[in-house]
Amino acid sequence: MATEAWLSGPIVGIDPTLLPAAHALVQARTDILAAASTLGAVQLWAKPGGAASVAFHLCHVQGSIGRLLTYARGEQLDDAQRQAVDEERKIGAFTWRAERPQETPRSHAELLRGVTTSIEEALTTLAETDPATLHAPRLVGRSGLPSTVFGLLFHIAEHTQRHTGQIVTTAKVVRGILPE
Hints:
Largest sheet: 2 strands, antiparallel
Number of helices: 6
CATH class: Mainly Alpha
Order of helices and strands: HHHHHEEH
Low-confidence stretches: none
Number of domains: 1
Distance between the termini: 26 Å
Strand order of the largest sheet: 1-2
Strand content: under 5%
CATH topology: Four Helix Bundle (Hemerythrin (Met), subunit A)
């Protein structure tokens, strides 16, 4: 059994203050790829008991990381990011049909690539973050809710881990009840 990320020691370039967030993201990437890489199309898009599909969670992890990184930089969402939220909703509502498998909103490879790219972007941001800026105030969303750089970077890791758990669990359920 592989060592969990948090027991693997420092990550080059990551300040020790941000290391727990970096370890959480590294572990999420490992767990997501292990759980979702070998799912078949039926399994990827299934919504067992009305739960969100693995495909939705993959898309949401990618989009949420990008949005939270935007806020951490002290910026607001642009039009493309707002449109991505609409795409996430469509993916959440999508019902896969065997007779039209080519009609999926995103391919399996695109979903996995999007997650891994977003996690890499978050890890790069963690490495580039000056610890002196961690308590700088940041505003989140159209309402301008208060946070800090540190709060946002931590939430990226925490939120990604939450959805990773849902991906892992849903993948196990659909493997148990559905063919590939």
